[in-house]
Amino acid sequence: MEGLGAAASVIAVVELAAKVGKICLDYWSAVKSARSDIERLQKHIENLKTIAHDVQKLLQGPHGARLETSQKLLEALNNTRSQLGNVATKLEATLHMGRRAKAMRRLGLRALEWPFKSEDVDKIIANLQRDQDSFTNALQIDQTTEILEIHSKIDLATLPAASGAAFDSHAEEHNALCHPDTRTKLLRQIQDWANDPQAESMFWLNGMAGTGKSTISRTVATSFARDGLLGASFFFKRGEGDRGKAGLVFPTITRQLVLKIPALAPSVREAIDADLDVHKKALRDQFEKLILQPLGSIRRTTAIVIVIDALDECDGDEDVKTIIALLAQAKVVRSVHLRIFITSRPELPIRLGFKDVQGKYQGLALHQIPEQVVEQDISTFLGYELARIKKAYNGQVPLGWPGEDDIRTLAQMALPLFIFAATVCRFVDDKGRSNPVKRLKKVLEYRTATRNSTLDKLDATYLPVLDQLTSGRTDQDKAEVLAEFRSVVGPIVLLAQPLSVRSLAQLLDVELEEIHALLNSLHSVLDIPSEENAPVRLFHLSFRDFLVDPAKRTTNEFWIDEPKCHKTLAERCIQLMGQLLKRDICGLNMPGKLRSEVDQETINTHLPSEVQYACQYWVHHLNESEYNIEDDGPVHTFLTGHFLHWIEALSLLGRLSDGVLLTRTLLHAAQPDTASHCIKFLEDAERFICSHGSIMERVPLQIYGSALVFSPTLSKVRKQQWKERLSFIKSAAGIKDHWGIHQQTLEGHGNSVSAVAFSPDGKTLASSSADKTIRLWDAATGTHQRTLEGHSDSVSAVAFSPDGKTLASSSDDKTIRLWDTATGTYQRTLEGHSDSVSAVAFSPDGKTLTSGSADKTIRLWDTATGTHQRTLEGHSDSVWAVAFSPDGKTLASSSDDKTIRLWDAVTGTYQRTLEGHTISSGP
């Protein structure tokens, strides 16, 4: 290598940066006219020096020799050294220039001139930034080798990921990008936002269904990936199984980030080593431990962009709001330039989520783009696609086809729905039908249907495709075709996860050829792969909206009765499971074999896709239908005959934890007057899973061993399923008759637990402890959601606000803390007590918080601002508990002075003392 080595070059860069910074300081104090330019240059030099210091530490470390092998690193460092040297030379030359220097010294440097124009400073900074990015990126490449070789490798298989969620996945590869001549201003705006260090960390692009949001997302993701800025992407898709689950968003993004930025691996590995189930924790814990903390451990000057598409298709309104609140924290990561691009429909939960983080995002609604711009973009797209189709038909269409008037009409029909234009082009290009001229003419016949509403535009989008199924048929034939359409396409659009044609035929018990015959006419609206084992997908969710819209029940002959279709799917799932599930379905023949030792190929062979689907989603379809669970009906019969087989299948699929939730869903759906016996079985089944879940999850066949043996003798599951026990088990002595009153133990605190409280909706349990933490738990499953930390001493009490959005905690550290329950975000600290705070309570309207303390006082606080309102005094010893009356007018307090006091909660006036206790009136 020519010149200095990398280690020597970086030392020279550090020294030169320090020198230039010091000279800039001399100029700043003497040259007022150029202070803005001096400050800009000085700020950039300081940042450069910090990064160079980091590089120096790595180069001088035990693995520095390997890092020097990067030619790009050395080249960038030498360029930076040369550039800084030139700047230093020019600054010094001006500072010490001959006669002028003497004159300036006589004037106390007041006549000193800054030697660079603003454009010169811009050029210097740009050149330095370019080289800085180069050696940062080069170092990152070298660090990959270092990380892999010093045992920082992370087994990404331990983090689950949603299959097909990335923008460049196989599931997304055939979806369109924006035409190069469309959306140009919008795409430039997004690019500028990502590169602007002062911009908000989030960009929310929203628009109604079919306006092209996902196409924009794919284009943006592709562009950022090409520029090396894309860190990760997650494209939600309802009806695509894991792609609709909030719980897999952050693990999926983390896997992509580690592959893109290997320097994150040690921090992510540390999070996984500390908690193997971190991916199962609450969304806040996942986000902080898998994304925020690892990103905070690296330094990067260029942007890291995360693209999240179709957030409205995420299951769970509260989860959506939580995700938004968490992503809004992206700006707290100072060491990297993190940018998050989000698209969605402007649905209420999402609007509320962004309202809660106002001022922390940049937003744009597609309907705000001038109509003429959108119409021109659609015209451009149509012109390009129809020209391509014309070329493909090679002289089979008239020379002037389609004509500017037709394109203009189509664009006006489509406005503002890009999905209309895309569907029309697929329909016109369908080579299995009449020629393009006739098909385009068919579409234009619907021009009058687009003049009123968006729903009418969906008619014009999809009816030309569907009408061909019934056109020219007799009434009887038409009725048969429509019935066949509903029986096949209905399930396709309502499936929780797409299935292949072959699996669909098995699930629906329909001939394969019958499905193929119908789907052959629907290539314009369904993505139908040529391989029979690949899933059939919707091109766009608006097709589903069009088919199941209740308002179209009498006007759309292709309308699908959604509850009725869900009921059919539930019944078919139950039938399929009843026919195929059995004990040891994978033929393991080893009661002690671990689930981790069973390869996926074995599972897929014995549990084909349609059976896996039935096991996971039969309860979903049942819940979405108007199904009435009855004693001795299909549901009850399936459970009493195959409950253990179903649990085994869930265990093999890694979904045993879903069993508790699905059982509880069934419990909520069953009515005592029609399903009393079924309810009792389900209650027992829930206890069975909760009690033995740990062993059944790890060793599936122990469902028929220890789980069955050690269940109470009067357990309904045990009595019904005892015949399924492992063959060598004859009987077991000393087993209790009943489950007992204890349901579940929640463990995790490191010291005594001082208080618990349920959220108003009963879904969350909060606990406080002497270990200085608060823990939140899912009250239904007992799953730990998140840990809240911040108090410096024991936490004595917790309380939820009436709306459940805020949690208050009191502590021996003399403070009260308020937390956002959705995200676990710390909000504020209330200070004023002079001793331990032992109790907190919200008023019924949630506007006031009261606290009791060992300082003998009660304090009232405004919950909106945290302002102290008043102090109530009168007790002669520590106050242990406080409570508002249901109307919020009276406040009660209890104390070690053996009394209870009543107060006017509005004025703080003391009302009366209740006496009679002979020892302290503690909590």
TrEMBL record:
SMART domains, per database record: WD40
Keyword ATP-binding: no
Ranges where the NACHT domain occurs: 201-346
WD repeat positions: 746-787, 788-829, 830-871, 872-913
Source domain of life: Eukaryota
Pfam family, one: WD40
Gene3D superfamilies: P-loop containing nucleotide triphosphate hydrolases (3.40.50.300), YVTN repeat-like/Quinoprotein amine dehydrogenase (2.130.10.10)
Keywords noted in UniProt: Coiled coil, Repeat, WD repeat
Coiled coil (residue ranges): 31-94
Name of the protein: NACHT domain-containing protein
Species of the source: Schizothecium vesticola
